[in-house]
Design goal:
alpha/beta; 509 residues; 60s Ribosomal Protein L30, Chain: A; 4-stranded mixed beta sheet; 5-stranded mixed beta barrel
Length: 509
């Protein structure tokens, strides 16, 4: 009989979460490098370069790949011959490991979990509780699959109960374009088929945690119906032309992983969960001999990529005006220097409440001729100005955009992924602009931030309003002052250029 000690289990959970916060799985790096080398879209290739550069920097600096350090999901297979030497329950031990990892002073991870989700939405401050799935199996070991799943990609999860004769391919091809770029492609699609509604979702999540091996499958050919389905979806989804960060290109998915389970004769439940470019997961076993050991990959496993400014336009944020932004074109790369303010969901809600009530904004919050960056940064450690500070999904701010542009003198916004029709209409009306930073390049972005201070709503934690002083922060013009959106035009262009499927309008709304 194997005895698993409480401290060994807690430490293994904590060490795993720290490990995956700054080390991409090697299969992801290899797959992204292949995609980078063959990519023909300049904007998508630049986005992939930033993701690869960021990944190497995080591996070297032991800091998070993405500012969204995820919600922890754990799959446990517990051998029936295992004996626990513990005073806590298994669930309590998992959460103790999560708490230890996220509060580690050498590599603080962002606490993103909110209690009372339908009410006050209060941050738990330590990223607990985790989402835990447990299964008793034969044997004398504990097998652990653990992931830290980002909220942007999780928000794009989809489920459908198809009729038995309905086509899964047709549903996926209809659904993927509606997901937009908020899930930070390129990544993988996890698909679960069968069981019941909740079982298919669990299968899809488990599929997201499998290794990327599509190139090996292409090389040897399919051996069963699921492998045939994987290959068909891989080719057709990439033929949509959505591309890295939705900027149009050859690679939208690095792999399509599928798990299935027997289902009722009247049903065909299908779930789809994307995993983003900051994919974080690992697997380990405990056999009673001590905590799990995690072997760091070699830095030589990362490609050496040097990014140059090229034809990027340098922008002084402190002297910016409407005449300046009117000259910007969609797809153009900018290097921003100067002062900008931050704000995301909770801050936007408070700002709009103040505006509607005719009240003044807090001291230090003046958006006149300024840009706002949608970000919730990780707390700094050691000599950092700020921790990883990549963009959050901009569509969540769409409902606030009109009143803020109308009432505050804001010139533009920076986030990730596309804007919806309502926000684009407001941008066009007020001759504003929307820029994107690369999701999955948070540590790289943070190195452009020279000063940082909280100026309003400190009680909101990572959602407080910060003032950043940046130098050469790289962004791409996504919606120009005339209302043209690269997330609409570029995928259509690349879809037609790839030419494998009829052009499907890519629209997230």
């Amino acid at each position: 009989m194997t005895v698993i000690r409480q401290d060994d289990f807690v430490d293994s959970i904590s060490d795993a979460l720290q490990f995956i916060s700054y080390y991409h799985p090697l299969d992801f790096i290899q797959a992204l490098q292949i995609a980078y080398e063959k990519e023909q879209s300049p904007a998508a290739k630049d986005a992939m370069a930033q993701i690869l550069i960021n990944s190497r920097m995080c591996a070297e600096g032991h800091r998070p790949i993405c500012q969204d350090t995820g919600i922890v999901t754990v799959f446990l297979k517990i051998g029936m011959n295992v004996q626990w030497d513990a005073k806590l329950s298994v669930t309590e031990m998992v959460n103790a490991g999560v708490r230890k990892a996220y509060l580690d002073p050498d590599n603080l991870l962002r606490a993103s979990i909110l209690a009372d989700p339908a009410g006050k939405r209060i941050n738990t401050q330590d990223n607990t509780p985790a989402v835990i799935h447990m299964e008793l199996v034969l044997g004398d070991k504990v097998e652990v699959e653990i992931a830290a799943k980002g909220g942007g990609s999780e928000a794009k999860s989809k489920f459908v109960m198809l009729n038995p004769s309905d086509s899964i391919v047709d549903w996926v091809m209809k659904t993927v374009p509606t997901m937009g770029a908020g899930w930070c492609p390129p990544g993988i699609l996890g698909i679960g088929i069968g069981g019941t509604a909740e079982k298919s979702m669990i299968l899809a999540k488990q599929a997201c945690m499998e290794s990327i091996d599509i190139q090996a499958l292409i090389a040897r050919g399919p051996e069963n119906a699921l492998e045939e389905l994987r290959l068909e979806l891989y080719e057709k989804v990439n033929a949509l032309g959505i591309g890295a960060q939705g900027l149009g290109g050859l690679t939208t998915v690095l792999d399509v992983k599928i798990k299935d389970y027997p289902t009722h004769a009247a049903n065909k439940p299908v779930a789809m969960i994307p995993n983003c470019a900051a994919t974080r997961h690992t697997h380990f076993e405990l056999d009673g001999s001590g905590p799990a050991q995690f072997i760091p990959p070699k830095l030589s496993d990362w490609p050496v990529i040097t990014q140059t400014a090229g034809n990027a336009r340098r922008v002084n944020l402190d002297s910016l005006n409407k005449q300046d932004i009117a000259t910007w074109q969609t797809g153009e790369t900018l290097l921003l220097s100067g002062t900008l303010l931050t704000g995301r969901d909770a801050a936007h809600k408070r700002i709009v409440e103040l505006l509607k009530n005719g009240e003044a904004l807090p001291e230090g919050v003046d958006f006149t001729n300024k840009m706002i960056y949608y970000v919730g940064p990780v707390d700094p450690v050691r000599d950092e100005i700020v921790g990883p500070a990549g963009p959050t999904t901009a569509t969540r701010m769409d409902g606030f955009t009109e009143i803020i542009l109308e009432k505050t003198g804001l010139l533009g916004m920076i986030g990730k992924a596309e804007r919806g029709a309502m926000a684009i209409a407001a941008i066009k009306k007020h001759q504003s602009v929307y820029l994107i930073a690369v999701g999955g390049a948070a540590y790289l972005v943070s190195k452009a931030i020279r000063k940082a201070r909280v100026v309003a709503f400190p009680e909101l934690g990572m959602e407080a309003i910060h003032e950043f002083v940046v130098e050469d922060m790289p962004v791409t013009v996504a919606v120009d002052s005339r209302g043209s959106s690269i997330h609409t035009s570029a995928p259509l262009h690349w879809q037609a250029k790839i030419g494998k499927i009829p052009v499907i309008q890519v629209n997230s709304n």
